[in-house]
Amino acid sequence: xxxxxxxxxxxxxxxxxxxxxxxxxxxxxxxxxxxxxxxxxxxxxxxxxxxxxxxxxxxxxxxxxxxxxxxxxxxxxxxxxxxxxxxxxxxxxxxxxxxxxxxxxxxxxxxxxxxxxxxxxxxxxxxxxxxxxxxxxxxxxxxxxxxxxxxxxxxxxxxxxxxxxxxxxxxxxxxxxxxxxxxxxxxxxxxxxxxxxxxxxxxxxxxxxxxxxxxxxxxxxxxxxxxxxxxxxxxxxxxxxxxxxxxxxxxxxxxxxxxxxxxxxxxxxxxxxxxxxxxxxxxxxxxxxxx
Length: 291
What we know:
The protein is α+β, with helices and mostly antiparallel strands. It is built from 11 helices and 7 strands.
């Protein structure tokens, strides 16, 4: 609804909790099943990933409250379907999570300048949270910057909060800073924290890729022999990864330190997707069909 920004990917709480895993399952699989799944199949699948039935039911209640799921019976069978109002946000999340885009040094930047009075303090807080969630860096309190390809997403955020008329968007070349641009970027974005997120992902999942395959565009590693294992690995992999592309806007090389781990983790995620996504999808379809 206007005046409220309702992201499908929450930055908090962190990955691995039942609500986050269920949200990840919905984004990965529920639309592929036609948008509906029976409760028994959902409980079975989440149990495979280590989530108890009671925790899954609690998470279902939370996601219903957030407007992601609707309870629906089909032929007297209890189930859940994707709320149609959430489809656009899910599709937007797909693009951000699975189509990582890095900015080139010669591509433009997007700057957002806004001024909101104290009476609109709550919207000001929401806007700052939204800009952070889109990967914008704070130059000053009312001036934010991100790669130019995020222009459409910030337009949507401003419109959703009904503050578009209070903001100005500039599409510009690289700003001229007093210090080297990389030093300025390190102040605008929390690059150390972001690098730690990438490194954590690498440390957790590089073990699944043989050393010989850890090069860009290399062949995919072999998927696990057990489709259930592929399902669990892929679910947890995406759950760990899904917030990283939101806080990492894809800065160009000129804005990053020379030992930046981001592209390594981007390629690792792509390799694991090529290996695990299809067997995981097949397992979900089998369980959902009651086979």
